[in-house]
Design goal:
This protein is of the alpha/beta class and about 325 residues long. It has helices at about 5-10, 25-35, 45-55, 60-65, 70-85, 100-105, 110-125, 145, 165-180, 215-230, 260-275, 285-295, and strands at about 135, 155-165, 185-190, 200-205, 230-240, 295-300, 310-315. It has a seven-stranded mixed sheet, sandwiched between helices.
Length: about 325
């Protein structure tokens, strides 16, 4: 990574990052925070410290602890687990999963919703696989969302990965080689709020930005960038976290699909121990209004079973 690229990296990576601490220092700081906060009505200090130690025992947990979020590699690891990781309970490095890691990957309601969102995108994208397509992923991460699509019968197409994280872009280039698509891809290190593209993409797939942006005005500006980058008639596919019942009495969650004990443990892990960065929740009505405000129409919601992490499809008018 060049110095310029590294500086750019550090400007606006919303999802993850902690450049000022070692992992050991992070663990000690989290430990002290938990102790200072004391027992909570739903979880003791002792139980939180136990979870902290368990998280520090496997690579995904260590990264999440140190960064309070996931980069492209670890996002892919979490999403792809549903397709390959459950077999034998091992990860891609043939390492047995710990019980807590298995819980996060296979029972956490938020993770299950994210995995289902990936399935939904694969179904949506099939409607737009045609000659001359230009698809973009932003933030691309390692861009498996586009690279794994079935392009059988489509000869002329272009895939564009956009991310502010140079490390993710490098991994995406390698993955494109593995899929044999190096001649069909291009990558750009850009800030999503300041895109260089205009009337460029038939489909723009974007997940994992709005959940880190609590400011509605800033998010509307992001959607304006997406709108500008799409061709007339182009399609935006994005997603958002709906507010949980403890935050919004009118929560859209469907509790009949959620195990209450799994939900409690998951929320303790993410919000009490990890103190994750994805804390921007919005209802479907708010999201629809934001998209309409910048000009999108034909707005459709595709819900995960629990209605935690819905996908929204919106069209730029022709």
């Amino acid at each position: 990574m060049t110095k310029q690229s590294q500086e750019f990296n550090e400007q606006r990576i919303l999802s993850h990052g902690n450049k000022n601490e070692s992992l050991k220092e992070t663990i000690e700081r989290v430990k002290q925070r938990i102790i200072e906060m004391g027992d909570k009505p739903y979880v003791t200090v002792a139980r939180q410290l136990e979870l902290l130690n368990e998280l520090a025992a496997f690579p995904l947990g260590k990264f999440w602890l140190h960064n309070r979020g996931l980069n492209g590699y670890w996002t892919d690891y979490v999403i792809e687990h549903q397709y390959r990781g459950k077999v034998g309970g091992i990860d891609t490095q043939v390492r047995s999963l710990t019980e807590l890691e298995k819980f996060i990957l296979e029972r956490s309601p938020r993770v299950l919703a994210a995995q289902q969102r990936d399935i939904n995108f694969s179904k949506i994208s099939k409607n737009y696989l045609q000659e001359g397509l230009v698809f973009a992923s932003l933030p691309s991460g390692i861009m498996r969302d586009l690279l794994k699509l079935d392009f059988t019968g489509v000869e002329n197409f272009r895939l564009v990965g956009i991310d502010i994280d140079s490390e993710s872009l490098e991994l995406a280039k390698k993955l494109a080689e593995e899929y044999g698509l190096s001649d069909k891809v291009e990558f750009h290190q850009e800030d999503a709020w300041n895109l260089s593209f205009q009337d460029e993409f038939k489909l723009l797939n974007s997940h994992g930005l709005n959940i880190f942006e609590p400011d509605d005005d800033k998010l509307t500006k992001l959607y304006q960038q997406f709108f500008k980058a799409l061709i007339p008639g182009g399609i935006l596919v994005t997603s958002f976290f709906t507010p949980p019942p403890n935050i919004d009495p009118n929560s859209e969650w469907d509790m009949s699909y959620i195990n209450s004990e799994d939900l409690l443990l998951s929320e303790i892990i993410f919000f009490d121990v990890l103190d994750v960065k994805f804390t921007a929740f919005r209802s479907s009505s708010t999201t629809k209004l934001q998209l309409q405000t910048v000009g999108f129409d034909d707005i459709e919601f595709i819900w995960d079973n629990a209605r935690i992490f819905p996908t929204v499809v919106a069209r730029k008018p022709k």
